[in-house]
Amino acid sequence: MKKNILITGTSTGVGLESALLFAREGYKVYATMRNLDKAEPLHDAISKEGLDITVLPLDVTKVDTIKDTVATIIKADGKLDILLNNAGAGFAKTLEQTSLEEIDWVTNVNYLGVVKTTQAVLPHMRAAKSGHIINITSVGGLVGQPFSELYCGAKFAVEGFTEALASYVGEPFNIKFSLVEPGGIATEFMNNAVAKTSNDKGEMVTGAYKPIFDTFLQGAQDRAANGDATAYQTPEQVAAIILDLAKEENPPLRKRTSDWAEQLCHLKTKADPTGNKLLQEVKAKFL
Fold first, then answer.
1. Residue 151 among the catalytic residues
2. Cα-atom radius of gyration of the chain, to the nearest Å?
3. Which of 27, 30, 111, 151 is catalytic?
4. Are 183 and 258 in contact (CB under 8 A)?
């Protein structure tokens, strides 16, 4: 039986390209998204290429949709080989100007969604003593960046969550854990962040922070507009790295996806680029 993979957030970007690439490589893909109205690109590819992709509804903020989708996969295949936690959303705003509702939202989408989806999948992988959980974080999961404290905080949380799980679930139950840490990705990610955090005048940040934010945003927009190859990757490039990671017999705990990402994080990662050394030390110290 071919390997299968559950991917969250496949309507656009890295999730969409990962679903297509894994299917073209012979995997059975369960491509999920919150809004099935955005599934047309997947359906077009399925029709044109005969890809083995099943599109299912899954909102990472709603536990019932997670459980229903996992149950559907287990009923169909009796197993789940790979979970790719890709769903996430950008958020750029000052803490002072962020509402409590927005704090809950960015945390739910970028952190708690990963926790809940992993929780639903783990019993099946543990019983099978086989599986690979790949969590997409960001260089923002290693390096805090201006106006991204809530987004970075959520991604830092995913990093710690994954590292801790790997320390005691990985080896005894033959479950692999990997963190994929891209830098900038040339998608609508920043545009979505702008739309989500702007007020009715189109302003994301006002008051004393505005001059600093305008400089920050202009730099991000200039890099994207100029197609800065050092800072931005395409979704296809990141998807290819995820596929290679999934094929590795002993994948690293951490994987940056570009030289730019490596350079940004090097002060935190140069002693242990993959995270595997520290993972082994933690296991030796505590278990």
1. yes
2. 19
3. 151
4. yes
Task: Return d(Cα 167, Cα 177) in angstroms, integer.
Answer: 10
Residue-number span of the structural domain to which 216 is assigned: 4-286
| 7: DSSP letter | E
- What is the value of pTM for the model shown? 0.94
Number of domains in the chain: 1
Give the DSSP H/E element, type plus range, for residue 284.
helix 276-286
How far apart, in Å, are the Cα atoms of 276 and each of 108, 130, 279? Answer: 28, 19, 5
CATH (domain of 264): 3.40.50.720
Q: How do residues 113-156 score in pLDDT, each as one tens digit? A: 999 999 999 999 999 999 999 999 999 999 999 999 999 999 99
Q: How far apart are the C-alpha atoms of 125 and 113, rounded to whole Å?
A: 18
For 80-118, the pLDDT digits (tens) are 999 999 999 999 889 999 999 999 999 999 999 999 999
Is-contact 224 186, C-beta < 8 A? yes
Cβ atoms 82, 132 nearer than 8 A: yes
Q: What is the mean pLDDT of residues 12-40?
A: 97
Q: Long-range contacts for 41-45 (Cβ within 8 Å, ≥24 apart)?
A: 41/11, 41/12, 41/16, 42/10, 42/16, 45/20
Report which DSSP code applies to 170: I
